[in-house]
Amino acid sequence: MGLHPADRVADYRGRGWWLDETIDSLLAKQVAERPHALAVADAPNKPALAGLPPLRWTFAELDAEVNRIGAALRKHG
């Protein structure tokens, strides 16, 4: 049993909107092609909003953080 109705999946596949790519595969492609390029950045006003400095991560840094969080989640079941 899937999470989405089969007819909707078929419709979206037919339109080219639903692909077999995953977020992980898309990230891995970017890490391989441009590891030092900027991937994500906090808003410059983050200190005013959250009292924390804004972060900027390259694709390689984002990948490392994703792996770190994934390992922690796996450890905790």
Written overview of the protein:
- By secondary structure, the protein is mostly helical.
- Helices cover 56% and strands 9% of the residues.
- It contains 4 helices and 2 strands, in the order H-H-E-H-E-H.
- It has helices at 6-15, 23-33, 46-50, 59-75; strands spanning 38-41, 56-58.
- It has a two-stranded antiparallel sheet.
- The radius of gyration is 17 Å and the shape is elongated.
- The protein starts with 5 loop residues before the first helix and ends with a helix.
- 1% of the residues are buried.
| Beta strand count | 2
Structural class: mainly alpha
From the spread of the alpha carbons, the general shape counts as elongated
Count of DSSP helices?
4
How is the largest sheet built, in terms of strand order? 1-2
Radius of gyration over all CA atoms, rounded: 17 Å
Low-confidence stretches: none
Helix content: 55-70%
Task: Spell out the blueprint of helices and strands.
Layout lengths: L5 H10 L7 H11 L4 E4 L4 H5 L5 E3 H17 L2
Antiparallel strand pairs: 1-2
In short:
With 77 residues, the chain is mainly alpha-helical.
Keywords, separated by commas or semicolons:
single chain; 77 residues; mainly alpha; two-stranded antiparallel ribbon; 2 strands; 9% strand; elongated
